[in-house]
Amino acid sequence: MDDTQSTHSLNAELYHDQTFFEIEREKVFYTEWQWVGRSQSLVASGDFITTEIANYPIILIKDKNNKINGFHNVCRHRASKVLQQDKGNCKSMVCPYHGWNYGLNGNLKNPPNFFGGKDFNYKKHSLFPIRVSEKYGLIFVNFSLKSQSLDDWLGPFNKVINNYYDNDYIFHNELKFDVHANWKTYVDNYQEGYHIPLIHPQLNRDVVWEDYTIENTELCSIHSVPSRFGSNQPGSFGWHFPNFIFNMYGRGIVFQRIEPIKPNWCRVVYNLFRPSSVSFDDFESNEGKYQLDVTLEDQQLVPEIQRNLQAGIYQSGPLSAKYESGVAHFHQLLMKKITKGE
C-alpha cells in the first residue's frame, strides 16, 4: 500500500446511498469500457442481443458488413425499448410502440403516417450509438464516444491476460448470480486475499497464502499466490476498474463482471473457457466445480456484509497493507473518477 492510498475503507453510506449510486452510473459506468457479451453470440447478419449496464438498456447487432453495432435500446420517438427480446435475429429493428423502423446500422427509415412538423428530419433521428470493441472473444462497449480505445484502457491488464489466454480456448458455460449487495461490496471482497484462510478452505489448502501479493498499477490489480506442491488449480487473478475480472483456474480461464443493479443489488456473471482438447465433463468436474465452490463461499458472506453496512453502526475500518492494498487501490480510483471535474 503506497503513501497515496487510504488506510481505511470507504464510508459505509456510499454502499447504499441512492444519490451516490446515480453519480456512479454517470461518472463511472457511462465512461468506462464494459464487457457485455461474447462475439460468438452474434454470427449472422441481423443477430442481436439486448442487455443493460447500470440500468442503461443497449442493443448489440451484427450488420450486413459483419460489423457489430451498438445502440441505446431507446426509440428516438417516445423512448420505448426498440427490441424487447433478450436475443434473436431481425432484418430491421422495429419499435413495438409506434412502428418506427431502424436499419441494422441504426438509421431511421422514413416513418409512414407520422406527419411530423416542418422541422422534422427523419435522417437526424437515428438510434443513439455506443462504441463497440472485441477482445478475447468478448464484446465490450463504451457509452462515451470520446473514450480511449479498448486496448489503451486495458493497458497492462492486456499483457497479463495475454500471458495466459490461448486462442484454442472454447466457451464452456456461463453462470449468473443475483447478489443482494452493492457492487462495491462484491469488488472489495475480490480485491483482497485476507479472507482466504477462513472463507475458502480448499483454496487455502492449495496455495501458499503467506506469499500472497498484489500489484496495483494504473486501472488494475494483479493478484498472485504460489500453488502448493501437487495443486494445479489456483493461478493468477486480476481486476480492472471498475468491474472486469479474470481468474486462471488450472487449464482454463474465467472472465467475470459485477453488474450494478441497485444500491443494494448486483449481478455477478461468469464466463468459463476451456481448451478445445478438454471435454466438457472433464473440465466441469474439475475447474468448473472449483470455481463454483469458491463463488458460493463468497456469496454466503457478501450479503451479510451489505446488511451491516446499511445498519448504521459501522462507518469505516482499517485496511491491511499486505492483503488489502487492492481494496485501497479500488477506492482511490473510484473517488478520483467521482470527484473529477468538481
From TrEMBL:
The UniProt keywords, alphabetically, are: 2Fe-2S, Iron, Iron-sulfur, Metal-binding, NAD, Oxidoreductase
Q: What is the lineage of its organism?
A: unclassified sequences, metagenomes, ecological metagenomes
**Which positions fall inside the Rieske domain?**
33-141
Q: Nucleotide-binding: present as a keyword of the record? A: no
Q: Molecular function (GO) terms listed? A: 2 iron, 2 sulfur cluster binding; iron ion binding; oxidoreductase activity
Originating species: marine metagenome
Q: Does the keyword Acyltransferase apply?
A: no
Name the CDD domains on file: Rieske_RO_Alpha_N
Q: Tell me the protein's name.
A: Rieske domain-containing protein
Identify the cofactor(s).
Fe cation
